[in-house]
Amino acid sequence: MMYTTYAKVTEELGQNSTLLLSDLNQAAVEAIISEQALVIDDMIQRVETVPFEGGSVPNVIQNITLTFVKYKIWTRKAPRDIPDWLQKEYDNAFKLIKMIQDGKISLGTLTDYSDDEDDLEEGGLTENLRWASNEKYFTEDL
Known about the structure:
By secondary structure, the protein is mainly α. The chain contains six helices and two strands. α3 (26-44) crosses α4 and α4 (59-77) crosses α5 (84-101).
């Protein structure tokens, strides 16, 4: 199961795609995509039903996969030259998948999921992710 596409990977890598993918064909990139999808499945299989099928792959999982793939491609070509933006993106994606794995975030039912900004309040990201925390940041007076 692939949670992102070759086209999305090349688009996200932008001007760097020519250099980073110079020794990889589409099949090799798709193998990396499948590998990273399996990593994600292994991490969250305790709390989510995986693999996600068809159009039911949550956008958050697609984005995490895309980030993992970009990082994997970059590190295999230039492991000592990872840009700060990519390292931060990877670290955040990893933290997010760990939160899902630990049950701190639930992907919920995403059959009606939408990434359209107008739908964020209804059926989008804010409705389909549930955050759990025992920490209180405000007093009852607020």
